[in-house]
TrEMBL record:
Superkingdom, taxonomy of origin: Bacteria
Protein's name according to its UniProt entry: Thermolysin
Gene3D superfamilies for this protein: Galactose-binding domain-like
InterPro entries associated with the record: Galactose-bd-like_sf
Length: 255
């Protein structure tokens, strides 16, 4: 089973078509019923004809409504015959619709532990020496006083068509360093969708920025509108004198 094309872009209210071709693997051709799932709100898919005999093709039309949110969606098209079920994916990109606003990160205050986050060992916890800003959990990078690197990441899909995209977080920096030199650093980075490449380092903090208490910081993510990105906090310590970077209530806000 194959879709041609396998992706399409549509402006809200419009429709996009693709041809589904089936092949007869072996034996007698059977009737295949076609369904689609994973469609965004207000969108529907129709097949003409709605079921085919193996070896035939069907035209799929995805129709959106004015309320369909902007974004990229993986629409799963499934063909089911009495003997077998097979699924192919159609990538649907919707633009020109309303902004799907809101907070986009999972478990922003760490109160569900490590849910939604990927972190190095010991970062997410219920620290008493580096207490949370809210609740009983936070993330605590570094604080070892020896060469050490900790990271904290979460992927996020930024929709298109919104006015404001920000990364907001509360940061507390505690250090045993007295130097005016930046020996221990925390970088706030944007990585590509699979986290294999750094797209930008938005901000770098160090022991020099140490202060008592949490402070809220805001960084602009507007350049990444419409993209799947990974947010990474990367803390690196040198060989002596510990610095702790405590983070809590990390949010990505779109409006
Ligand atoms: Ca918390
Ligand atoms: Ca140090």
């Amino acid at each position: 089973m194959k879709l041609s094309p396998s992706s399409g872009a549509v402006t809200v209210g419009g429709s996009v078509t693709s041809t589904l071709n089936t092949t007869l693997a072996k034996g007698t051709a059977q009737d295949i019923a076609l369904t689609a799932s994973g469609l965004p709100n207000g969108a529907r898919a129709t097949f003409s004809p709605a079921s085919v005999t193996a070896g035939d093709s069907s035209a799929m039309t995805i129709t959106t409504s004015p309320t369909t949110p902007n974004g990229t969606y993986a629409v799963r098209v499934t063909g089911t015959s009495p003997a077998i079920s097979h699924t192919v994916t159609f990538t649907l990109t919707v633009s020109g619709g309303p902004c799907p606003d809101g907070q986009k990160l999972v478990n922003p205050g760490f109160e569900a532990g490590s849910t939604g986050w990927t972190a190095t060992s010991g970062v997410i916890g219920q620290s008493t020496t580096q207490p949370p800003r809210s609740g009983t959990w936070n993330a605590h990078l570094d604080g070892y006083g020896k060469e050490h690197t900790d990271s904290l990441t979460q992927g996020v899909s930024l929709p298109q068509g919104c006015n404001s995209y920000t990364l907001d977080y509360w940061l507390r920096i505690d250090t045993a360093e007295s130097s005016v030199n930046a020996w221990d650093t925390l970088k706030v980075q944007v990585l590509n969708s699979d986290g294999s490449r750094v797209l930008d380092t938005l901000k770098t903090y160090s022991n020099v920025n140490a202060a008592s208490g949490y402070f809220q910081r805001t960084l602009d993510l507007a350049p990444y509108a419409g993209q799947d990105i990974v947010i990474r906090f990367l803390g690196t310590e040198d060989f002596a004198l510990k610095t702790s970077f405590a983070l809590d209530d990390i949010t990505v806000n779109v409006s």
